[in-house]
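quick one before i forget lol
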Amino acid sequence: MHGALRAIPVGLVAGLCAAVLLYHLIGDVSTASALAEGIRAHEPPVVGWPGALLAAAGLGGCGTAVVRGWALASPVVLCVLAGLLVGWAGRVMTAASIGANIGGGLMLGFGLPLAALLVLAAVVTAGVVARRRAQSEASTSKSDPSATAR
């Protein structure tokens, strides 16, 4: 499997790890007035700080895969950006607020589709790079007579 195609699963894992890590690093963003009124934020069932440490380790492992050349960097970076956006959106959408959570609505309407576009761009980038590398390898093997003389 090409390094460009390996970047897709590595990028998806890195994006998931980035989302969990950022969600925990941001913490609760509920308004003080909502908390004073007794409105509690929805706390999704996430593992907690051990999960955040595991996500940090996973993100480091994905970074190592990119640095060692096992996976292409640009799709992984796009997936990490999408993961950061999803983590931020998760905190904004689960914040306790009085009345409508307008920030949550904006994140749901614009942030998550943008994250989906980033992941789609990562997949397309990996596919284009894999195709170009395959074409260049095919043209190199055709022009090299020693490769066919065996």
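fyi The two ends are 25 Å apart (CA to CA).
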